Amino acid sequence: MLKLDPIPKVITFDCYGTLVQWHDAVRRAVRAILSRRLRGNETDEQVTALADRLREAAVERQQRSPFCNYKAVLQSSLNEVLRDAGYSATSDDQETLLSILRWIAPHPEVPAALARLRERYRLAVISNTDDELITGTIAAIGTPLDYVVTAQQARAYKPDHQLFLHAYAVMGVTKDETIHVGMGQFTDLKVCHELGIGSVWIDRIGEPLNPDWVPDVVLDDLSGLPELLLPS
């Protein structure tokens, strides 16, 4: 067990990528969108490149002012990356993207890991999304969560401190009474470093770690988290 002082009251989680299969969902959406234009002849390389760029564009747009909801972020990001690829986005493209991202399956180990952790801790999601867009995905996870705090509620996207501070106010805790589990370095580890929040990095894809945002613990997935945080 990780030595925690004080013992957390709440474990907070990033959702997309950390708990659910975000990268696969974005690739499925992009493949469907490209398939309309390339008649099923799109390559895996084309799909991956456009999906990577779509995720990057969405993160970039989240950092712009003024705040706009995540549905609009996704739609404008899709318009941008399709335009750069030589295509025009259609309403069907927009609906394909949003419909796939409204229900994303959890990583296989996640429901059981969360169920074990819930025996001792309150569990929360802090996510760069809208309330409506994440509802189906939270249901897909299966394990009940005590709090789901979104960028829409705080009107701020990670790594803006405001989203975390809003979450702590909602949960009635201080940062020292939580530990955060996330996959994103810029969106999660950065703010944990800046605010002094205990952190667990879930490195699902073997990314190089930014030395400026070193977490307390690194795991490949959530399967080892109960052993780390629960007494033996």
Number of helices: 10
Which percent range fits the helix content? 40-55%
- At CATH level 3, the topology of the largest domain is Rossmann fold
Neighbour order of strands in the largest sheet: 3-2-1-4-5-6
What gross morphology would you assign?
globular
Count every beta strand, where a strand is a DSSP E run of 2 or more residues: 6
In what range is the share of β-strand residues?
5-15%
CATH class of the largest domain: Alpha Beta
Order of helices and strands: EHHHHHEHEHHEHEEH
Could you describe the largest sheet, including whether it forms a barrel?
A: 6 strands, parallel
Overall pLDDT metric: 96
Cα distance spanning the termini: 7 Å
CATH architecture of the largest domain: 3-Layer(aba) Sandwich
Number of domains: 2
Radius of gyration of CA atoms, rounded to a whole number: 18 Å
SSE class: alpha/beta
CATH evolutionary superfamily of the largest domain: HAD superfamily/HAD-like
Task: Flag low-confidence runs.
Answer: none
Structure description:
This protein is an alpha/beta fold. The protein folds into 2 domains: 138 residues, Rossmann fold, CATH 3.40.50.1000; 80 residues, Orthogonal Bundle (DNA polymerase, domain 1), CATH 1.10.150. 48% of the residues lie in helices and 12% in strands. The protein contains 10 helices and 6 strands, in the order βαααααβαβααβαββα. It has a 6-stranded parallel sheet with strand order 3-2-1-4-5-6. Strand 4, helix 9 and strand 5 form a beta-alpha-beta unit. The longest helix has 19 residues. The model has no long low-confidence stretch (mean pLDDT 96).
